[in-house]
Amino acid sequence: MSATYLPTLKQLQYLVALRTEGHFGRAADACFVTQSTLSAGIKELETLIGVTLVERTRRVVRFTPLGIRVAEKAQRILRETEDLTDMVRAAGKPLAGELRMGVIPTIAPFLLPTLLPRLREQWPDLRLYLREETSQAACDALHRGKLDCVLLALPYACGDVEVADLFDDALLVAFPPGPAAELPECVPATAIDEDSLLLLEDGHCLKDHALSACNRPELRAEASILGTSLHTLVQMVDNGLGITLIPEMAVEAGILAGTRVVARRLDADHPVRKIALVWRKGSPREKEFRLLADALKAAA
């Protein structure tokens, strides 16, 4: 009976990294190896299974159709391997060891300074690694196994995930000081001028939450989507360039400090976004994530 030679996990990691990055140098950096090591590992894999997975040229990396399918299967195998490790870890002390959590930019700087000290106090053995990314990037990383869970604002289509709701975060209308003096404490959505509305650029779910809260479809086409961050939008409003919608948590964290911007409540059917912790369905660490969600909810 002939011996069967199986691919190593390291070879599969190299292949998945190359498929994700599309560049040998970036893939090598992601795997913390040299480019020659990564290239040799993938070449060994191809020799082992007897097929070409990657077409190499000087300028581009092109996966063969079979190479694409092998990389997708390899990604699932690596995720299952991580789940195996997680299952063993979860059987021991809860919320101990490494946990990789994604956080979107419209939550991270406003909530984490309050939450992290309390989490460290409650779970001293937890090594929490944070990765700030847009909603789409964070959800993609979650399903690729690069993240264990994501602190997200809903509604957002994050795929096949479990959800633990934490709390509601109201959306407020931010005005320059002059116009704000003439407005009521609660501003109706119909009073928002589409020609002066400033929103975050594509990729930030807050843009969709703001438009949904206003329930005015014409704003989607008319709004000037300029800001790369909430801080940038606030500075634009402070300089009289328009109005915007910002989360209440950002206001409570002091984002308006040092500006003349005035925030008013929004009178609308759904003037809130829901802050939630999400993770892959079927994760063996579900009990841990629910413990983490309870801790986040209590701290917030």
Structure description:
The chain is of the alpha/beta class and 300 residues long. The chain folds into three domains: 9-87, Winged helix-like DNA-binding domain superfamily/Winged helix DNA-binding domain (Arc Repressor Mutant, subunit A), CATH 1.10.10; 93-165 and 274-299, D-Maltodextrin-Binding Protein, domain 2; 168-273, Periplasmic binding protein-like II (D-Maltodextrin-Binding Protein, domain 2, 3-Layer(aba) Sandwich). It is built from twelve helices and twelve strands. It has helices at residues 9-21, 24-31, 35-49, 65-90, 108-122, 135-144, 177-180, 205-214, 218-222, 230-238, 248-252, 286-299; strands spanning 54-56, 61-63, 97-103, 126-132, 149-154, 161-175, 186-188, 197-200, 224-227, 243-247, 262-267, 272-280. The strands form two sheets. Strands 3, 4, 5, 6, 7, 8, 9, 10, 11 and 12 form a ten-stranded mixed β-sheet that branches. A two-stranded antiparallel ribbon has the order 1-2. A hairpin with a 4-residue loop joins strand 1 (54-56) and strand 2 (61-63). Helix 1 crosses helix 3 and helix 1 (9-21) packs across helix 4. The longest helix has 26 residues, at 65-90. The radius of gyration is 23 Å and the shape is globular. It starts with 8 loop residues before the first helix and ends with a helix. 34% of the residues are buried.
Principal-axes geometry comes out as globular
Low-confidence stretches: none
Number of helices: 12
Can you write the helix and strand succession as a string? HHHEEHEHEHEEHEEHHEHEHEEH
Proportion of helical residues:
40-55%
- CATH topology name of the largest domain: D-Maltodextrin-Binding Protein, domain 2
CATH class of the largest domain: Alpha Beta
> Distance between the terminal alpha carbons, to the nearest Å?
62 Å
Question: How would you characterize the largest beta sheet?
Answer: 10 strands, mixed
Structural classification? alpha/beta
| Beta-strand segment tally | 12
User: Could you say what the CATH architecture of the largest domain is?
Assistant: 3-Layer(aba) Sandwich
Q: What percentage of amino acids are in beta strands?
A: 15-25%
Kindly provide the radius of gyration, computed on alpha-carbon positions and rounded to a whole number of angstroms: 23 Å
Task: Round the mean pLDDT to the nearest integer and report it.
Answer: 85
Number of domains: 3
The CATH superfamily of the largest domain turns out to be: Periplasmic binding protein-like II
